[in-house]
């Protein structure tokens, strides 16, 4: 039987999944977390489904070696392109970020017009449209790929005129079609939420799937009797970060998002898994 005190595994192509990490640590603070950011191979959004599925498989095997009790695919691109395959192949409870975001958006819209911003691969997969239409086929969904957002965020240009200019170009078309709800369909985007909110204006509600994903994770752990309800000494290494390159730079970024408790950030060779 899986140990309730075992960690949760979370992964993304880079720093984006830390927005989901942050939400999980706030909603279920008693859990240990092992995070993997694939910094050597970011971005995933311009890669083929085969490549992303291979990367995701390696990461799941790495997280398994850390004896995680559940996995959160904190990357929309990997959720869209690889979830079906890894879920089939590995016998470990997993959740992704797209279904929770689709559900919140369908519940949020009042005028029936939803926008989705995401990576090229996620938009091409059409997955948000399929999920939302399944919930309510009368809704209209318009997707927009924003490929420059991920490198801008990875470079830490969160409040920068360059990011502002790029965001204006990407978002203008969505303002023109009068959406009232916009899904941040890439886990990097909540890190530039203020810029996006300012450009879209007050009438547009932004949906960050992280909150709902953390709630779903908690429910999944409870259903599987895996929630860490025991008294454990969590100061003994609660949060561990791993990356495929640039551990020091990553740690600095992570420290600005996750305010406490990160004990180690290590580089591993993900190709070994
Ligand atoms: N943060 C990821 C996502 O949610 C991946 C971005 C990328 O690597 O292109 O899609």
List keywords for this structure.
single chain, 273 residues, four-stranded parallel β-sheet, 11 helices, binds D-glutamic acid
Description:
The longest helix is centred in the first third of the chain and has 17 residues, at 49-65. The model has no long low-confidence stretch (mean pLDDT 94). With 273 residues, the protein is of the alpha/beta class. The protein is globular, with a radius of gyration of 18 Å. The strands form two sheets. A six-stranded parallel sheet has the order 4-3-1-2-9-10, with helices on both faces. The protein has a four-stranded parallel sheet with strand order 6-5-7-8, with helices on both faces. Helix 8 (161-176) packs across helix 9. Strand 3, helix 3 (76-89) and strand 4 (94-96) form a beta-alpha-beta unit. Helix content is 45%, strand content 17%. It binds D-glutamic acid. D-glutamic acid binds next to helix 3.
Whole-Å distance between the termini? 24 Å
Listing every helix as H and every strand as E from the N terminus to the C terminus, the arrangement reads EHEHEHEHEHHEHHEHEHEHE
Mean pLDDT: 94
- Over the alpha carbons, how many angstroms does the gyration radius reach? 18 Å
Bound compounds, please?
D-glutamic acid
Enumerate the strands of the largest sheet in spatial order, edge to edge or round the barrel: 4-3-1-2-9-10
H/I helix tally: 11
- Outline type: globular
Helical residues, percent: 40-55%
Note the beta-strand portion: 15-25%
Q: Provide the low-confidence segments as ranges.
A: none
Secondary structure class reads alpha/beta
Q: Note the main sheet.
A: 6 strands, parallel
């Amino acid at each position: 039987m899986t140990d309730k005190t075992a960690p949760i595994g979370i992964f993304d192509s880079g720093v984006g999944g830390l927005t989901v990490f942050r939400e999980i640590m706030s909603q279920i603070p008693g859990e240990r977390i092992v995070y993997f950011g694939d910094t050597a191979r970011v971005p995933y959004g311009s890669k083929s489904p085969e490549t992303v599925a291979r990367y995701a498989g390696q990461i799941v095997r790495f997280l398994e070696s850390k004896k995680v009790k559940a996995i959160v695919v904190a990357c929309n691109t990997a959720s869209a392109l690889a979830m079906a395959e890894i879920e089939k192949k590995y016998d470990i409870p997993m959740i992704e970020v797209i279904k929770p975001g689709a559900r919140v958006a369908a519940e949020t819209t009042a005028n029936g017009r939803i926008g989705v911003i995401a990576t090229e691969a996620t938009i091409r997969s059409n997955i948000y449209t399929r999920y939302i239409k399944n919930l309510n086929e009368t809704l209209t969904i318009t997707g927009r790929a924003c490929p420059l957002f991920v490198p801008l965020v990875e470079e830490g240009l969160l409040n920068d005129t360059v990011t502002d200019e790029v965001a204006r170009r990407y978002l203008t078309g969505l303002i023109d079609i009068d959406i009232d709800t916009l899904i941040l369909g890439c886990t990097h985007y909540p890190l530039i939420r203020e810029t996006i909110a300012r450009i879209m204006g007050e009438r547009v509600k932004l949906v960050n799937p992280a909150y709902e994903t953390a709630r779903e994770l908690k429910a999944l752990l409870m259903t599987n009797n895996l929630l860490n309800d025991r008294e454990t000494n969590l100061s003994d290494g609660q949060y561990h970060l791993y990356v495929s390159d640039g551990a020091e730079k990553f740690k600095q970024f992570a420290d600005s998002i996750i305010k406490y408790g990160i004990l180690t950030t290590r580089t591993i060779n993900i190709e070994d898994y």
